[in-house]
Design goal:
- By secondary structure, the chain is an alpha+beta fold.
- The chain contains two helices and five strands, in the order E-H-H-E-E-E-E.
- It has one domain: RelE-like (YaeB-like fold), CATH 3.30.2310.20.
- Helices cover 31% and strands 40% of the residues.
- Strand 2 and strand 3 form a beta hairpin.
- It is globular, with a radius of gyration of 12 Å.
- 19% of the residues are buried.
Length: 81
């Protein structure tokens, strides 16, 4: 699978603290190779818009769509508690 990014997700990525950005890249690598990787905790977030959610760490999440052979990262946000 390939990874792509929306403009919104690229803006969010630039603003992340370095440790969170590095953790995101690690998790994105897991996603690219295996949607079911245990540390991702990937799940369907919004059924009607076909948006998925995955974990960066306890406090951060990223959202993505699956389109053919590509994951498109749509946003990266703190996890609402």
């Amino acid at each position: 699978m390939k990874l792509d990014y929306t403009k919104e997700s690229l803006r969010a990525l630039k603003k992340l603290p370095r440790p969170i950005r590095n953790a995101f890249y690690k998790q994105a690598g897991f996603l690219k190779n295996n949607l079911l990787h245990p540390s991702l905790h990937a799940k369907k977030y919004d059924e009607s818009n076909d948006i998925w959610q995955a974990r960066i760490n306890r406090d951060w999440r990223f959202y993505f769509k699956i389109e053919r052979d590509q994951y498109t990262i749509t946003n990266i946000t703190p996890h609402p508690k």
